[in-house]
User: Fold this.
Amino acid sequence: MSRTEGERGPQSASPKPAEAELAVARMSEMSVDLRGCAVLGPEGEELASTGGSGWSRAGAAFLEAADAADGEPATQVHVATEDGEAFAVRDGGLAMVAVAERFTLASLILFDMRTVLRDLASGNGVPDRRAPGPAPEAG
Assistant:
């Protein structure tokens, strides 16, 4: 767990669902070790995830446990277990939670999460850096 002064931005309005989905897609593309991730809104609600449900409840519990450890909101959390690694980052009233393979490069995952979440929380949207699909065939 770590806390950095000034890293947590002001509360902002929830992003549009398409923006949150793009953030999750971007994070999934950036990290090959990622098992799954989700973006949580200001009230802990799931805005987008890599699939399945339960991210909001599990993510909120993960962040609550981290907050209770020091009595202050955690801005970054990393827990490693025998089965994998869990991460959480908060920025601008939003949070991203993720689970990755064991022995993943934690500093890189956390950097990617902060970058994607900061873009989303800024209100300017997440840049769509996915490669364009193949051009349609002329017919």
Q: What stands out?
A: The chain has a mean pLDDT of 84. The radius of gyration is 15 Å. The chain is about 35% helix and 20% strand.
